[in-house]
Write a structure and sequence with these properties.
Chain lengths: 158, 158
């Protein structure tokens, strides 16, 4: 029986798998208020050629539209990969109160991987828990990058 | 005779004034490549009720569309107020090579005010110069907040 956190992270993971199938770095995100999903997002950076189209930003934009406000203080955010500085900053700006992530990101993570923006003295400090379905979240990324390397071996032009 | 930096910051300042006239916290931004403006943005957070609609994010989205790519490595960014963590993170993600800002932000600044994301060990480190037309950039913000306080005195319902 999955916990509530595993249930919502599985939804985010399904979005990450959708991103992988579309050739995007597989990251997915859902935003939850009162036990209901109010925003979903997955990485669409290549599709849109938009710097900001990370999973969290897409989910925040959808939650903004659903709730009619830029303030998401009653919301919790689930994301398969530790947020980068842009997304961690957007979480701070939205006043999201709690963040659950799957895999840690030692290269770009701004919630402990490289730095921790939630501990830097900004006015709000979301609660933070990592490692929810961590192994599954890591695997979808590892499989994606292994697939890219194999493609390069077959066709070095890619 | 204004310098090149003052010339572009004046364009950002005009966008900040447009934001103030629309009742938004007055911040404006332009993105420049090869001496030409390829993206303009101003704060539209209240109008759109979108967490991400800061001046820099709007300008980055416009530059993405103009150039057809999420990578802005040949670009420089001018903004009237020191970027917040979200916008500084987007600047890192876009690989923007240089940032010129006007006023420092001791409450939310992520380029020295509270923290400095450009010095944290992420893969790229944009060059950074503050204080371009700093006094003018500070004044447009101070006037806006003084106006809000006066309104509250006249009508405490606001």
């Amino acid at each position: 029986m999955p916990t509530e956190q595993e249930h919502f992270m599985a939804q985010a993971l399904a979005l990450a798998e959708e991103a992988a199938a579309a050739g995007e770095v597989p990251v997915g995100c859902v935003i939850v208020r009162d036990g209901e999903i109010v925003g979903r997002g997955r990485n669409r950076r290549e599709e849109k050629q938009a710097t900001a189209s990370h999973a969290e930003m897409e989910a925040i934009a959808q939650a903004n539209a659903a709730l009619g406000t830029w303030r998401l203080e009653d919301c919790e955010l689930y994301v398969t990969l530790e947020p980068c500085p842009m997304c961690a900053g957007a979480i701070l700006n939205a006043r999201i109160r709690r963040v659950w992530y799957g895999a840690r990101d030692e290269a770009f993570g701004a919630c402990g991987g490289v730095t921790n923006l939630f501990m830097e003295g900004f006015p709000n400090r979301p609660a933070l828990v990592g490692g929810i379905l961590g192994e599954d979240c890591r695997r979808v990324l590892a499989d994606f990058f292994a697939g890219l390397r194999n493609k390069e071996k077959i066709d070095p032009q890619i």
